[in-house]
Automatic annotation (TrEMBL), chain A:
Component of the ER membrane protein complex (EMC). EMC8 and EMC9 are mutually exclusive subunits of the EMC complex. This is ER membrane protein complex subunit 9. InterPro entries: EMC8/9, MPN. One of its GO terms (cellular component) is EMC complex. Belongs to the EMC8/EMC9 family. Residues 4-138 form the MPN domain.
Automatic annotation (TrEMBL), chain B:
Part of the endoplasmic reticulum membrane protein complex (EMC) that enables the energy-independent insertion into endoplasmic reticulum membranes of newly synthesized membrane proteins. Component of the ER membrane protein complex (EMC). It comes from Oreochromis niloticus (Nile tilapia). The keyword Endoplasmic reticulum applies. It is found in: Endoplasmic reticulum membrane. This is ER membrane protein complex subunit 2.
Length: 205, 321
């Protein structure tokens, strides 16, 4: 199918989300602010849960709120990501497939991204992600060559640096927001930090 | 106490300029005394609250053990245990082994220490060896619940959910009041999408602990997920109960709003039920808006959440009527 591009901001936030809750399964939504047609550019992500992923109420609530926020900010939900607590198993769970299906109803080229925990050691060289796309009502593995991460080395460095300096503790997912609603699940502060670290020469991050 | 004595001595003495070297040693001792007390208190609080903030425990614990061990008295053993477990959680096998070795020296035949040995093997993914240790404990003492729970944790770590569930059920037949075990079982069932059985576990938990708002709220979430009118009504009731126990539980508030809205929108309900649920939903919506207004005061970034929630509530009301 089509090409998918993953931005630095989206990758770093997903990575930090997984680092913040290393003992839990985590999930979130992938967003795009680019116009439709051509490659799918994942420009941002919203971390959602780190507990009770298969339960419906909070997931429904989060999907609705993110939907509303997207329409206010000219973005759209284009995919879903998840990292399993069990590091040796990175296959999509039934709830991952369900949520991804729902997203695919609204966006044809939706992607399902699984973070591979076993490949996230400090010296990892390749992006620890596995992507799936929808074909004939099934989710199949996406050809690696259609997945792009521009400036991968820089992105990887930013992610490691932020984790080492403890910035992952600044990340707010929807679960944390519900524990304290003064926290911002759009993570504006973190976005700013990521932008500061990315080189000014970098075009669209 | 040592701080107070020093202060009174200094206050009553005539102001005499002390040699600099003496001053700084005194200061250092005072600061160290205070600091080790502070660290000890932190570790105690985390033990009592059963927090899993392993990185912090390792930070504080490592310093306490290496620099203030002499001041800890008998507390040192329980601190070794706490730091060892936290170290395993952070892949700090060096620190874990140090703590374990001290504990082994002091308590050579202890089952409690044997269990820690097993846990270290688990962390190194040497599950068969770990199981041997736990089996040895259970051979000696069949009622040792800690060893049984570790065996179940190994099944979970290996992804053997069905076996873990079976073993946990057997365990609970014997130890019916074990809240931790019931909660673990409910989580396992939720991950297997067996919501009926998860609900049963949460019902047991609510019976044991009727004032815990989190159990009510989780039960309500499971019921909501099961779906169907009857389950939705139950979920609404339990979201409401969770709110009665803790009126700041936002999940319960949103849950109440969503379940009431769905019931009101259902074509199968009577006019009265529809009207009642619209009332509940409207009440919940007001509370939600109020909570977000309070939260949003002063900070620019929270205005975003407030607006999002307002719009979301409005859009859901339209689908309801």
């Amino acid at each position: 199918m089509g090409e998918v591009e993953l931005s630095c901001r989206a990758y770093v936030k997903m990575y930090l989300h997984a680092c913040l809750f290393p003992r839990c399964s985590i999930n979130g939504l992938l967003l795009s602010s680019s116009p439709t047609g051509g490659a799918v550019c994942v420009t941002d992500c919203v971390p959602l849960l780190h507990s009770h992923l298969p339960l419906a109420p909070i997931t429904q609530l989060a999907l609705t709120q993110v939907d509303v926020w997207c329409s206010q900010t000219q973005q759209r939900i284009v995919g879903y990501y998840q990292a399993n607590a069990c590091v040796s198993d990175n296959s999509p769970t039934p709830c991952a497939l369900k949520i991804a299906d729902k997203i695919a109803e609204q966006f044809d080229n939706a992607v399902l991204l699984m973070l591979d925990g076993s490949k996230m050691s400090p010296d990892y060289r390749v992006p620890p992600i596995v992507m799936y796309e929808r074909k004939d009502s099934r989710w199949i593995l996406k050809d690696k060559h259609t997945i792009m991460l521009r400036q991968w080395e820089e992105t990887r460095a930013i992610a490691s640096q932020m984790m080492e300096s403890g910035d992952h503790t600044l990340l707010v997912d929807f679960d944390s927001h519900l524990d304290d609603i003064t926290k911002d699940w759009t993570n504006q502060k973190l976005n700013t930090k990521i932008e500061e670290l990315a080189s000014p020469a970098n075009g669209n991050i | 106490m040592c701080v107070m004595v020093l202060m009174s001595q200094i206050a009553s003495a005539r102001p005499v300029k002390m040699p600099e070297r003496f001053e700084s040693t005194l200061e250092k001792r005072v600061v160290e005394c205070y600091r080790s007390e502070e660290m000890r208190d932190k570790l105690r609080k985390w033990r009592e609250d059963n927090c899993r903030n392993s990185e912090q425990i390792v930070d504080v614990g490592e310093e306490l053990i290496s620099e203030h061990a002499s001041k800890l008295g008998d507390d040192i053993w329980i601190i070794y245990e706490q730091v060892m477990i936290a170290a395993l959680d952070c892949s700090r096998d060096d620190l874990a082994l140090t703590c374990l070795q001290e504990l082994r020296k002091q308590f050579p035949d202890s089952h409690r220490v044997k269990r820690l040995t097993g846990m270290r093997l688990e962390a190194l993914e040497r599950y068969d060896e770990a199981n041997k240790h736990y089996d040895a404990i259970l051979q000696d003492d069949p009622t040792n619940t800690a060893a049984r729970k570790r065996k179940i944790s190994i099944l979970k770590a290996q992804g053997k959910s069905t076996e873990a569930i079976r073993e946990l059920n057997e365990y609970l037949e014997q130890f019916v009041g074990d809240q931790e075990a019931w909660h673990e079982l409910s989580e396992l069932y939720i991950n297997e999408h067996d919501y009926g059985k998860a609900a049963f576990c949460l019902e047991e938990l609510m019976m044991i602990n009727p004032h815990n708002h989190l159990y009510c709220e989780q039960y309500a979430e499971v019921k909501y997920t099961q779906g169907g009118l009857e389950n939705l009504e139950l979920s609404r009731k339990y979201f409401a109960q969770a709110l009665r126990l803790n009126n700041r539980n936002m999940r319960a508030l949103f849950g109440l709003y969503m379940s009431a809205s769905h019931i009101a929108a259902s074509p199968k309900v009577s006019a009265k039920v529809k009207k009642d649920n619209m009332k509940y939903a409207a009440w919940a919506a007001t509370q939600i808006n109020r909570a977000y207004k309070l939260a949003g005061r002063g900070t620019k970034e929270n205005k975003c959440s407030m607006k999002t929630v307002e719009e979301m509530l409005e859009s859901m009301q339209i689908t309801m009527s």
